[in-house]
Amino acid sequence: MRTCAREERIKASTTCKFQTMARLFHTVLLAALIGAAAAEAGQKLVLTNDDGWAAAFVRAHESALNAAGYDVVLSCPAVDKSGTGSSTATPTVLTNPCEFNTCPVGSPPEGFNASNPRQNYVNAFPVDSARFGIQTLAPKFFNGSAPDLVVAGPNVGSNAGSTVLISGTVGAATEAVLEGFPAIAFSGGSGSQVSYTTLESDPTSTTSRAALLYADLSIPLVNQLLSTPKPFLPGGILLNVNFPSLTSNCTAASAFKYVLARINPASSGTPPDVSTCGTTRLPTENSIISRSTECLVSVSVMQASNKGDATAGNQTFVLEKLSPILSCSS
User: Fold this and answer.
1) pLDDT tens across 193-215, in order?
2) Which partner from 13, 144, 219, 281 sits 20 to 30 angstroms from 67, CA to CA?
C-alpha cells in the first residue's frame, strides 16, 4: 500500500508538472501567433513623433515595428517640435539644418533619407507630419492603401494628465484620429533628446536603453490591438500610453504590466469609468507611472476632440480588445 501511495504521489506530481508546462507553452505560443499573424498580414503603420525624425526613440521604435513584421513609413518633424500640441503650418524650406545635421540648409519642405526613402521629414509641426504620412506617404508606399494604424512616439518624457494638452506627440495622434484612423501615442519617462546614432555609439547610455526598452514594450500592445477585428478603436478615440522611468528592477519588457488608466483625476461629478479590477474608477496615468519600481505601463482611452477621458462605453470597448495583456494595478 505504501508503494502504491508513493507511485500515486509521483504520478500526480508528474501530471502537475506537465500541466504547468502545457499552460506556459500555450501562453508563449499565443503571443507568438499574435505576432506572426501581424507579420503575415503586413499591416501598414505610419510612425510619427514630435522629437524629430532623427531622434533615438523614434528610430528604435521604427526598427522594432519593422522587426515585428509591420509595413512602416516614418513621417516626423525635421527638428524637435516638442510641446507644440496641435499647432499646424504649411511646411517651408529649411533655413537651418535638420536636427543633428541630418539635412542641410535649403532642403525642401518635405524630404527623405536617400538610403531609406521610408524615413521622411516635414519642416512643420507634428500634426503636419502625421497628415503628410497619412495623405501622401501612405498611398505611395502602401500601394494606394490607407494605414491600418498611426503610431506616435515614444516621446522623450511622459505625456500624462494635463500635459497631453500641449504634447506634440499626442497632437499628431489626435490628428490621425480626426482624419478617421486609429492611433496610439506612446511616451516614456526616461531618456533625452539625442541622435539615433547614439543607439550604436553609446548603447549602454540611459537614453539608448530606454529607447530600446520602450520600443519593445510597444510591440505587445500593437500586436494585441491589430490582432482583433476592425474597427480597432471606436471612432474619435485614441490610446495614450505612458512608460515609467527606468529603474534597476524594470529592465526587461517581460517585467512590465499594462494597466488601464484615465488621464485626468475624477471629481465628484465625473461619471463612472468602465467596471474592472473590482471598481468603476480607473487609476490616473500619473498614479500608475509614479510607481516606477512596480514596472507599470498606463494605457488611457482618450477623446481626440478634446484630449480628455473617453466614456465608460469606449473604455469598455478598449478593455475587451486589450484584455489579454491588461493587468490590475495591485
Assistant:
1) 999 999 999 999 999 999 999 99
2) 144
